[in-house]
Design a protein that fits this description.
two-stranded parallel sheet; 45% helix; mainly alpha; 3 helices
Length: 74
């Protein structure tokens, strides 16, 4: 449905590949996960927490909500 600028796209539905790519990330950094509406990102959020990431946030409402908020700012 779209992408937030500078976002990295990882497919949580390919769980093994997702875990492999996430394992390469710096666990000391902050991450915001999102998808179109918030369902898949909740899964990504859970996996990342399970993998030891402490600063992971699920964007409530997903890309649709982010896009809506961007339109309100204009």
């Amino acid at each position: 449905a779209g992408a937030i600028p500078k976002a990295v796209n990882l497919d949580v539905l390919q769980e093994d590949k997702f875990r492999s790519e996430v394992e390469k990330l710096d666990k000391s950094k902050t991450y915001f996960v999102y998808c179109r509406s918030g369902q898949r990102s909740q899964t990504a959020f859970g996996i990342m927490n399970e993998m030891g990431f402490d600063q992971v946030y699920n964007v409530t409402g997903g890309y649709l909500k982010w896009e809506e908020l961007q339109a309100e700012e204009e």
